[in-house]
Amino acid sequence: MREHEIDDHGPEAAEPPAEAVNPALCPECQGAGQLGSGEVCPVCEGSGKALNYRPGGG
Ligand SMILES: [Zn+2]
Q1: How far is ligand 1, taken at its centre, from the CA of residue 9, in Å?
Q2: Is the Cβ–Cβ distance between 48 and 24 less than 8 Å?
Q3: Residues with beta carbon < 5 A to ion ligand 1?
Q4: Residue 39, burial from CB neighbour count under 10 angstroms (0-12, 13-18, 19+)
Q5: Distance from the CA of 11 to the center of ligand 1, in angstroms?
Q6: Contact at 8 Å (CB) between 9 and 28?
Q7: What pLDDT is recorded for position 36?
Q8: Which of 1, 11, 31, 36 could form a disulfide with 48 if both were Cys (CB 3.0 to 4.6 A apart)?
Q9: What is the pLDDT of residue 13?
Q10: How many CA atoms lie within 13 A of 54 on its CB side?
Q11: Would the pTM count as exceeding 0.85?
């Protein structure tokens, strides 16, 4: 069971305190479907859903 995947590719990554992030939402746009600049999110292509999210697991 893995709730969070941690990337340790650096000495210390200054990441903001992540609160409860919905794993079902796109990690890039947080379910907004678009980026802050107004562009369509390239990760979820505007769907706002996490493509790798599998409910139930297995
Ligand atoms: Zn997205």
Answers
A1: 23
A2: no
A3: 26, 28-29, 41, 43-44
A4: exposed
A5: 27
A6: no
A7: 87
A8: 31
A9: 64
A10: 6
A11: no
Query: What would the pLDDT profile of 3-55 be if each residue is shown by its tens digit?
Result: 777 666 666 767 766 566 788 999 899 899 999 889 999 999 999 999 877 77
With a cut of 70, say whether residue 58 has pLDDT above it: no
**CA separation for the pair 11, 8 (Å, rounded):** 8
Inform me whether the pLDDT recorded for 57 exceeds 70.
no
What type of residue sits at position 6? I
Q: How many residues does the chain have?
A: 58
Q: For residues 35 and 45, what is the distance between their CA atoms, to the nearest angstrom?
A: 10
